[in-house]
């Protein structure tokens, strides 16, 4: 049997903007079977927003698929591509509360939670806060946002060894005297109201973020200036603050969710979220099914990763 392909493209049957407080409205959509098994998709980034292919990890005949753009990205309002938009009320506890408010708004009792990369972080945080609302978890490219995980991504001791040209471009966008703390230096520039300052910094930030997304290089997406700035602002906002997670981290909360059926999928050559994070989660949660895909990196669209994810949603639909 060959690798599973995406389900065919599908359009939403319902959409809306949900007021979640603090002046924020999140864009949501529902696809598939209105009477099917409820599932919610949590996108990555943070600040990545939804893509049409995100709908295609689920059998539309069996699932009621819920997707939404997290605060200040995608089609949610206000949009972080405007440098005047504050991110003060954009934190992990806010996003967890948004997921729960959306569940209540749609009249869903319990649902499957699917998240990749940052979406896996948010899925774990939500499940630990609301375990009674989760029927199952599908987690890809596990991101625990621990200090060592950030050191891998943003210091010369980590992924820079494997992507030297890309790291040099990222580092060299900052003057030599400020390179001791690249995160802080980028933060000052990305949040500068002057486009002549924030746009070059945002482009360099996104260039490094996208450098290691897949096992084999793919052309970078063609993003407009507002999208680049929004993604850079939100991603930096979270990464520079430890993901707004409790000091003990996400592994400490696994006992609250070990009864929930779960599938963990990670690429062997994932350079964004190396597989030690998924392995550490599996060791803390041995009941969770664990798949290390040998010929894959970070991207959810890579054939081996996609196969395992769709296989998981198919099996969990029966539960």
From TrEMBL:
Molecular-function GO terms, alphabetical: aminopeptidase activity
Catalytic class of the enzyme: hydrolase
Record key words, sorted: Aminopeptidase, Cytoplasm, Hydrolase, Protease
Main location per the UniProt record: cytoplasm
Catalytic residues, chain numbering: 117, 270, 298
GO CC entries: cytoplasm
Stretches assigned to the AB hydrolase-1 domain: 40-299
Catalytic activity: Release of N-terminal proline from a peptide
Compartments where found: Cytoplasm
Xref: InterPro entries: AB_hydrolase_1 (IPR000073), AB_hydrolase_fold (IPR029058), Peptidase_S33 (IPR002410), Pro_iminopeptidase (IPR005944)
EC code: 3.4.11.5
Pfam families named among the record's database cross-references: Abhydrolase_1 (PF00561)
GO biological process: proteolysis
Statement: the UniProt record of this protein carries the keyword Translocase: no
Matching NCBIfam families: pro_imino_pep_1
The family this protein is said to belong to: Belongs to the peptidase S33 family.
Alphabetical list of PANTHER family matching this protein: PROLINE IMINOPEPTIDASE
Name of the protein: Proline iminopeptidase
Species this chain originates from: Actinomadura darangshiensis
């Amino acid at each position: 049997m060959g690798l599973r392909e995406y389900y065919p493209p599908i359009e939403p049957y319902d959409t809306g903007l949900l007021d979640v407080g603090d002046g924020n409205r999140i864009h949501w959509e529902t696809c598939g079977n209105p009477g099917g098994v409820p599932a919610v998709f949590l996108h990555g980034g943070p600040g990545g927003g939804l893509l049409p292919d995100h709908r295609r990890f689920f059998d539309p005949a069996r699932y009621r698929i819920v997707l939404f753009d997290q605060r200040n990205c995608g089609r949610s309002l206000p949009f972080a591509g405007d440098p005047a938009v504050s991110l003060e009320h954009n934190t992990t506890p806010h996003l967890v509360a948004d997921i729960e408010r959306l569940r209540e708004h749609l009249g869903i009792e319990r649902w499957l939670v699917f998240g990749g990369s940052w979406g896996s972080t948010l899925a774990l945080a939500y499940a630990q806060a609301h375990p009674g609302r989760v029927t199952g978890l599908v987690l890809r490219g596990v991101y625990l946002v621990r200090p060592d995980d950030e050191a891998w991504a943003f210091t010369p001791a980590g992924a820079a060894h494997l992507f030297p040209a890309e790291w040099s471009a990222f580092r060299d966008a900052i003057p030599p005297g400020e390179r001791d703390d690249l995160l802080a230096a980028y933060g000052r520039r990305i949040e500068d109201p002057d486009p002549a300052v924030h746009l070059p910094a945002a482009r360099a930030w996104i260039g490094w973020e996208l450098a290691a997304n897949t096992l084999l290089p793919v052309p970078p997406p063609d993003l407009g200036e507002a999208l680049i700035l929004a993604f850079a602002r939100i991603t930096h906002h979270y990464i520079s603050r430890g993901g707004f997670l409790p000091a003990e981290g996400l592994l400490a909360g696994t006992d609250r969710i070990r009864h929930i059926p779960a599938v963990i999928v990670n690429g062997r050559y994932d350079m964004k979220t190396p597989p030690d994070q998924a392995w550490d989660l599996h060791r803390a949660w041995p009941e969770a099914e664990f798949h290390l895909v040998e010929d894959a990196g970070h991207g959810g669209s890579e054939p081996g990763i996609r196969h395992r994810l769709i296989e998981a949603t198919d099996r969990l639909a029966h539960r």
